[in-house]
Design brief:
Blueprint lengths: L1 E5 L6 H10 L3 E6 L15 E3 L5 H11 L3 E4 L5 H6 L1 H22 L3 E7 L22 H20 L2 E7 L1 E3 L10 H12 L2 E4 L9 E3 H13 L9 E3 L7 H11 L4 E4 L3 H9 L7 H7 L7 H18 L9
Parallel strand pairs: 1-2, 1-4, 2-3, 4-5, 5-6, 6-10, 7-9, 8-11
This protein binds 2-amino-3-ketobutyric acid.
Length: 322
């Protein structure tokens, strides 16, 4: 199948492209950022400059490359989104509308959308199921709820095959881009880099997290699932929900002498406190066979050597982060 990935230069995109190509698909990447370097993206992958706030440009690209399926990842995440809510609205909400509209008018048959735990607000019964009241506290969450609803509308009104996962905080050996769940990854990154990390959250902070290989596989499996087996358009997927202190202990077990301290940042802590502690992903398990492969210990065992290799190969790239 020929596939386009939007926002492909971000944390999920490059891993998703590699996974989809491994499954035999022809994959095109697109992003507002320049093409990633050859060590990150195989030179044979077609790359397109794409600003999703420009609807005509999306439509022209889709007509030119004639893909059947789009994975729509382009978005500004929660922490960065609160610094510029207007831009976040334009990219996340306007961009998703533009993408769906361009898919409808150019004959793309299927869109897979990345939603998030940020669609939820505080006060829900745990673990939080798919079909509950959505009261997001961030612009990122608001625009992701709107994206879910728009996709549902395009499916009912125009027959566009729309599917979405609500991602937990994703962790991989890469520099994340402006999320509030990033404290978890920074424990590994700075643990390796400097032997110390000051987390911007309380030690008892607990949110759903997932190792990237599971997240990428979930997207690909939902994208390939038989439509007749899907009872919904949007699915929770879950893996593990440790406290920040438990992640710190796991990192300390793997990296000798590492020191992780906690100095909560009020804005980011408030966002984390508004998200669920844990998700109920029964519908994803029943409808399309979703099952995570990694828990916290398995992730730490695989991630620490990967982060070590990455930091060694690119010391300047990992020298600082927000
Ligand atoms: C973020 O922190 O904004 C994202 C998310 C949980 O969707 N990683």
């Amino acid at each position: 199948m020929r596939i386009l990935v939007t926002g492909a230069g971000g944390q999920v995109g490059l891993d998703l492209i590699a996974y989809l190509r491994g499954a035999g698909h022809e994959v095109h990447g697109s992003d507002i950022s320049p093409r990633p370097s050859a060590d990150a993206l195989d030179a044979s992958v077609p790359w397109h400059h794409l600003d999703v706030t420009k609807g005509e440009r999306i439509e022209a690209l889709l007509r030119e490359i004639e893909v059947e399926q789009v994975f729509h990842l382009a978005a500004i995440l929660s922490a960065r989104g609160e610094k510029n809510p207007g831009l976040t609205y334009a990219v996340n909400q306007g961009g998703t509308y533009n993408l769906l509209e361009a898919c409808r008018s150019s004959g793309v048959t299927r869109v897979v959308f990345t939603s998030t735990i940020a669609v939820y607000g505080p006060g829900l019964a745990e673990p939080v199921g798919d079909a509950v009241s959505l009261q997001p506290q961030t612009m990122y969450g608001v625009t992701k709820v709107a994206g879910e609803l728009l996709g549902d509308y395009y499916q009912r009104r125009y027959g566009l095959d729309f599917r979405a996962v609500r991602f937990p905080g994703l962790i991989s050996a890469s520099l994340p881009g402006g999320g509030t769940s990033d404290y978890a990854l920074f424990m590994y990154l700075d643990g390796v880099r400097t032997g110390a990390y000051e987390a911007f959250c309380r030690p008892d902070t607990r949110i759903p997290l997932m190792y990237m290989p599971d997240g990428v596989r979930a997207l690909a499996e939902l994208g390939a699932a038989d439509r007749s087996s899907l009872s919904r358009t949007v699915y929770n997927i879950a893996a593990f929900s440790p406290t920040a202190a438990e992640i710190a202990r796991s990192v300390a077990d793997a990296i000798e002498g590492v020191e992780i301290t906690f100095v909560p940042d009020p804005m980011r802590q408030a966002i984390l406190d508004s998200w669920p502690n844990a998700l109920d992903d029964t519908n994803a398990r029943n409808d399309w066979g979703w099952k995570p492969a990694f828990d916290l210990a398995a992730m730490t065992a695989e991630l620490v050597p990967q982060v070590r290799a990455l930091v060694k190969a690119n010391p300047e790239r990992f020298a600082s982060h927000e």
